[in-house]
Amino acid sequence: MGKKAWDRVRERRGRETRERQTGSALSPDDILYEDNWLIAVNKPAGIIIHGDGTGTVTLTDQVRALLAQRHGADAPCVREAQALQRLDRDTCGIVLFCTQKAVQPYFDALIARHELRKEYLAMVEGRVPWKMRSFDEPLGRDRHDARKMRVSPAGKTALTHARKLGEKRLGKRSCTLLSVEIETGRKHQIRVHLSQAGYPLVGDALYNPACLGTHTEPLMLQAHRVTFTHPVTGAHVQVTAPTPDWAAR
Question: Who contacts 99 (Cβ-Cβ below 8 Å, separation ≥6)?
Fold first, then answer.
């Protein structure tokens, strides 16, 4: 067998391995919005957006595969699709992808100007006593755990706004459902701010001490809604993800 044939075999085997690692691919039902320049998908928990060097299939891979099914494998949108923002591996919800490289700078500028409004649903441990609260502690890397972030006077500016939606019971525990908006996009921003305030997210294995050794629940954090003025068309766009079961009232 020639080198090119072996390369094709290795590529196919690698693709099959990555598909087994990530489970089912995105379906058309996961598309929340699409136009000539943009696609918004409902990211499931447990998948990374960009490659990490391990060969694991990413959300970008799955979005490109879905675009290929819809528009053909040779369509420019397939090779040009790029994520416009990040979500943690275990966070679910809306991720925007630009599908035309020529206009991506317009979307990047929109995000840089903080004109993309992002709303999350978050379930936290305990009964929150306030109706609304803002958090502005700067965030930096945790020097003792490379996986984590922490509140740090020398860290980067971070601004989070939380609004109480209601209280819920999870088994014998009292929990609170919050609507959260962020004006900055620091790594683990919502998770760290709420944990620092004494209300860690349910299912947060990094910042919720209740999860240590007994982590069985999913991280209850969803990118629920994004709102913006389309930089190409000028239209008002609002994209909303289906409410997860744990947040249903």
Answer: 36, 37, 38, 39, 67, 77, 80, 81
